[in-house]
Amino acid sequence: MDREARVRRVLLTEGLANFAVLAAKTTVGLATGSAAILSDAIHSLADLFNNVMAWIAIRLAAAPPDRDHPYGHRKYEPLAVFALATLLSVMAIEVAIHGFQSGDREIVDTEWGLALMSGVLIVNLGISLWEARWARRLDSDILRADVRHTTSDVLITLAVIGGWQGAARGYPWLDSVFAVGIAIFILTLAYGLYQRAIPSLVDAARTDPERLAEAVATIPGVRDTRRIRSAGAGEAMRIDVTVGVDPSLSTLDSHAIADEVEHLLAERFAADDVTVHVEPFRPSAPRED
Question: Which in 60, 104, 147, 217 has the greatest CB count within 10 A?
């Protein structure tokens, strides 16, 4: 089984767990009238969407380049992340509004509800530890990010249970406070996702051109660098560089230098796609970054 397939399998397993957690939180939230628990259920719904979209994005992004997508399909992943961030933002606003409007609702405590929420805690903790192990084994950034999210779910659920129990014992404002707090947390998650997705979608530089130029300058035969660009989506990076070589060199020798530059950049910067243009060295030529 290849790496992408293993990552998808981990996401599928976590998605099933998140579906069970979503069902448990929704049941307890509706039965007890707790806005905090229902808000946490919406958070779990977002987690489930995250798993589904990540699974689809990884499957699409792994497709090889074709006629319509000569640079591959990697941008499906940041596109999915951007869509998820937008969904989270809308949900966070709905959660906050619901939290402010739930002050007069009667909130009750149930033994079975507490037992079910305790089970949710155990499931989240188990999934977090299991996914962390696979993130290390597969060296997957998307799984690492999801592990941080799942670990935070444990803390949020603990806080939600505390707010619910306090509200059921005569402090209903606690439930509203925790509901709004979860909304703020969800917005923070959305902001982090936007920060991750937008640079890839607008082709922001992945690496400082100065670092790339310094690395290329170590290759014997390279007289200067005139154009250095980097971009990429997800875990893939693309580098495009133009180097100047001695005009007296043969085509074969110039090509050998280009091969060395390509190998160095691919190895040192973990670039998936490196394009090296070779031109005659012109001392007066301006450098382009």
Answer: 147
**How many CB atoms are located within 10 Å of the residue 264 CB?**
18
261, HSE (Cβ side, Cα atoms, 13 Å): 30
List pLDDT tens digits, range 66-99: 777 766 667 777 777 787 788 778 777 876 776 6
3-state secondary structure of 11: helix
Q: What does the buried/exposed string (b/e) look like for 216-237 if buried means 16 or more CB atoms within 10 Å of the residue's CB?
A: beebebbebbbebbbbbbbebb
| Cα–Cα distance measured from residue 122 to residue 72, given in angstroms and rounded to the nearest whole number | 40
Instruction: Judge contact between 14 and 74, C-beta under 8 A.
Output: no
> Which segments of 139-250 does DSSP mark as H helices, in order?
141-168, 172-201, 209-216
- C-alpha 48/C-alpha 32 separation (Å) is 23
How many Cβ atoms from other residues are within 10 Å of residue 99's Cβ? 22
Output the six-digit token pair for 223.
Answer: 């007289």
What DSSP designation does 289 have? Answer: -
Task: Output the pTM of the full model.
Answer: 0.62
* Greatest pairwise CA separation for the chain in angstroms: 87
